[in-house]
Amino acid sequence: MAAYCAYVDCDAEEGPGPVDSLTLVPDGFSWAAYVFGPVWCVWRRCWSGLVVWTLAGLGVAALFAWSEISPVGILGIIELMLLIFGLEAAALWRWSLEHRGMRLADVLIASNREQAERLFFEHWAQNQPRQTIAPGGTATRMPPTQGIGLFADAGG
Question: How far is CA 15 from CA 9, 10, 25, in A?
Answer without folding.
Answer: 12, 9, 22
